[in-house]
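User:
Care to share a sequence and structure tokens?

Assistant:
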Amino acid sequence: MNILASYNWIREYLKTDLSAEEFAKKTTAAGNGVERMEILAEKFDKMVVGVVKAVKAHPNADKLRIAQTDIGPSTSLRTGGAVEIVCGGANLKEGQRVAVALPGSKVRWHGQGDLVAIKETELRGVKSHGMICAPAEIGFEKMPCGEQDIWDLSAITNAKAGTSLAKALELDDVVFDIEVTSNRPDCKSIVGQAREGAAVIGAKQINKNSFTLPTLKTLTTLKISVKDWDLCKKYEAVLIDGVTVGPSPWWLQKKLLLAGHRPINNVVDVTNLVLHELGQPMHAFDADKLEGGEIVVRRAKKDESMKALDGKDYDLTEKMLVIADGKKPVAIAGVMGGMETGTSASTTRIILESATFDPVSVRRTSRALNLASDSSLLFEKGLSTEATGHTLARAVELILEVAGGKVASKIWSDRAAPYKAPAFPFDPEQASRLIGVEIPEKRQLKMLMDLGFMVGKKRKDGYAVTVPFWRDHDIEGSRDFVEEIARIYGYANIPSKLPEGELPHATLDPMIAWERRTKDILKAAGLTETYSYAFMSPQQLERYSIPIEAAVKIANPLSSEHEYMRPSLIPTMLTTVEANQGRFPDMALFELAPAYLPNAKDIPSPLMRLVVAVTGKDGAAAFRLAKGTLERFFREDGVRHFRLEREADEFWHPGRSAKIWIDDHLHMGTIGEVSPAVAKAFGLDVRTVLVDIDFEALLPHLSTAKSYRAIPTYPEVKRDLAFVVANRTEYGTIEGEMKNASPLLHAVEPFDVYRGTGVEEGKKSVAVHLSFRSMEKTLEAAEVDGEMMKLAKVLEKEFGAVVRS
């Protein structure tokens, strides 16, 4: 997960004069990686504040107007006065302050596509000296603005015409895009980044005093009850009366925009700002819309539903935690508030909620509803119960500042259990040994204290170190202290050293060894290995006619696309073919991976399968390539005897598929083209031939052993034989009967199959090369003629064949 962090905002909590580049370099080296930096002054280069002096109609376009715009005396366009700018903004009017992109600046047309350089140009016969911009066109896509409107800056700034936009909007800042590891939700906040920065660069952290709620004579008592302390570890709330809901001031909107949030109204904006600043989600209810004026934290009841703030209705289950009023759910706990009790322009009384919800419950609810939010992403990582109080006070402070009102109740606060901060022993000497560098004890202790850890008195087993509340879900033992010291010391400062000693000799598991060998064989044959998720959607099961009960359902799926463990590799392979067929109609792919079958212990049983897919417009060619690949795989892995038998399964194309047997009695899989119904279900536009093998069952029959056979002493005699048989007669069966009939028959090789003129309908002419050889003498012509007669009789008797002369 990532966070967009304004450097100016970070420095509200961190005393430092380091440049943004140097700060980014140091914090990245300590594991808090800055992936990208956006220098706003460069982004808004050649953009200024303009003042619209007059607006007149465009002579050649009904939807365009000409704005006489003062862009100041110091621009490169002219020494003073106004310039003409052609503009299509529906809200353009005289007296507005607007954002003007001068020639040489870069904008994104209507907030879409790549950046485009602005030039002086003629629009419908009128020369335009720049562009009056909408917020989305200069990087503020989430700023509320009408689709055809330009950005009216009149309520934001009184800057003179010609003032640089960055200066007028106080955008002399750098925004970091920082990667935050999933175990560090505390770093998904501005204060968390400031804490890390203070420890890494050795600077002082600025601790802002917590807001103290004013003491009033008459305070309302909130009606709140928590029915499920297992899923709600702590709940706090307060009532504010007399608020005026409206747009937020620019300084607040600016912080949210740079953080990637959309300004909505001053109350909601404060909750989003506090979330980004302190890393604790909050929610504001319209107190007058709560039935009975009460809040109940409980599990949803059967058949309950709720319309969330995204405008969608969600069906709730009895496993989901909700915030309810006297009659109905008004928020999905930890995920999203309800539309009905959200704040609006008519809201005058709000209840602010600050709580801690069970991470597993939030994650399961979010996945089950396919509904994610900034709040759910934080809660499901695990947040401390000790963050709610300070967060609530900060939100109250800001709301009173931007929305007015007064605190009208005492803070309602209760929790599941008293808080006990985690504490673990720490031995500096052991830490130095594990890191491989001798770091002075005092320096190690200072590093821990800079990170917020409390170091107690020294004992026999080292120091007792208490974990700060913002790390109580992350630090799990003494070894974690060592990692903290290593990263603050700097991984680059730890000398590199090659490992010494003899390399271990591990005996590979036979399955692993044969997996590697098989993959090498198939890749050498020109096939491409694919990797796909071991999960499937219900739709994929349905397309391949796999009953739901034949698949293992995942208790907490990542999404609706991954609800079941796959019982077969074929559906995921066909999905891969469908996704790539437009670019690569002729493919040869394979995947060797486990499928999962249900069992009585509710633990899926993995079963290794091999699937090969060959595609193309020519189905016969695809089948031959698939069959040749199968033959090569069997040959190189020691399977000497296999046969194919016509397949009658509904999933396979009738007449173009066969079962694979080895040693005449062991069924190992299937080769064939998928049926038209399956091809249509998966959206396949190319002929697709599959080889599906039970690799686990095949494993005992694989071998790399080679057997020696002496080179024949006597020459072979070659003959050709052609015969006509029924179309459905399988060649493999014919070859087998011929070899059984003649002990001198050394090899049979088909070279022609013909249907058409001269051959009766429903039949085919097959021609083969025959090789005869004796290991004891040179064969005479008469002996070979006798063998040929034997073969002709077998063909006539067993297959009703007619031998062609």
User: Anything to note?
Assistant: The mean pLDDT is 90. Residues 652 and 674 are 5 Å apart (CA to CA). The first strand starts at residue 2 and ends at 6. The two ends are 77 Å apart (CA to CA).
